[in-house]
Design brief:
It is a single chain. The chain is an alpha/beta fold. The protein has one domain (4-247): Aldolase class I (TIM Barrel, Alpha-Beta Barrel), CATH 3.20.20. Helices cover 45% and strands 11% of the residues. It has helices at 4-10, 31-42, 63-77, 99-117, 136-148, 170-177, 193-206, 220-225, 240-251, 255-270, 280-290, 309-321, and strands at 14-17, 49-51, 83-87, 121-124, 154-159, 182-188, 211-214, 230-233. It has an eight-stranded parallel beta sheet with strand order 1-8-7-6-5-4-3-2. Helix 3 (63-77) runs parallel beside helix 4. The protein is globular. The mean pLDDT is 97. InterPro entries: Aldolase_TIM, DapA-like. Pyruvate binds at residue 55. The active site is at 158 (proton donor/acceptor), 186 (schiff-base intermediate with substrate).
Amino acid sequence: MRDVDVFRERLRQSFFPAVPVPFRQDGTIDRLAQESYSRYLAGQPVTGVAVWAHTGRGLFLTSEQREYVYWSWREAIGNDRPIICGVGSRVSPGTAADAEKLFLQQAMEMAEQARNLGADALLVYPPTFYRGTIGQEEKIIAYHRMIAGLGVPVILFYLYEAAGGITYSPAVLQELFALPQVAGIKMATLDSVMTYQDVANLIRRDYPAVKLITGEDRMLGYTIALGADGALVGLGAACPGPQVAMLKAFGEERYEEFVRLMLQVDRLAECTFVHPMEGYIQRMLYILTLQGVIPAGAAYDPFGPGITEAERSHIRETLQDLNLL
């Protein structure tokens, strides 16, 4: 069993980029680009990385692809920096006669693979299979209890419903926070400031051991100021330097510097995390091409809406204004 208390300490003032996978247009992984990308990010001031998450299209990868991605990052960042693995299943009700059984089986297979590879923690995708079902709350709790039983530190994932998440009521959160293996919770509510505030206050008041991890790319600075212990964001897939510096500035009470950096980071998010939101992955990959990290032919997301010329132009101009090119 991996020590959850030790991992909780790793989450203090932490910054984990959720890393994308550099795909070619034929849907294959460009391994040379992946090696270049992992070397680049290993040289950045990041705590570790989150693989197989939404940014990394984890639920769409084959078992073999997941294993390759994991070892690519482990080789690049070494054993001293943690790797968080996203785990779950994209099976939905009605896809098979035994859909729920298949959903649970796939989620456990992914979680067991992560554990066996040596993942430092599991980021549990919201079990949207149960959204709107009878006994939804009990099923959500049982699902997390099942994965927590593997003995690996767990990070809960509160994702807004429009992005494929599910609402966790205060009662559900209280049950989940009480699970011994739960190290923290990633909040990604996009534009629901009230939801983030409510969960932050619940943790502060009743569950101080649980670490609050912001996944709020569009309000990263604000959520850090509201008490996040760390960040796990797709925005960190590129240009992590200013984001880490912002987190550090707040922790060291250099608030003028914090605000200056927050305004820069907000501009980066405002040109990448826009509608259609699923396009953010290819937009982040495009930044990596502009910075010479990966070739243009490896900046394709086969599961997203693509990127327009107008988006490319806006991103390029923003990065030039921010002196990130």
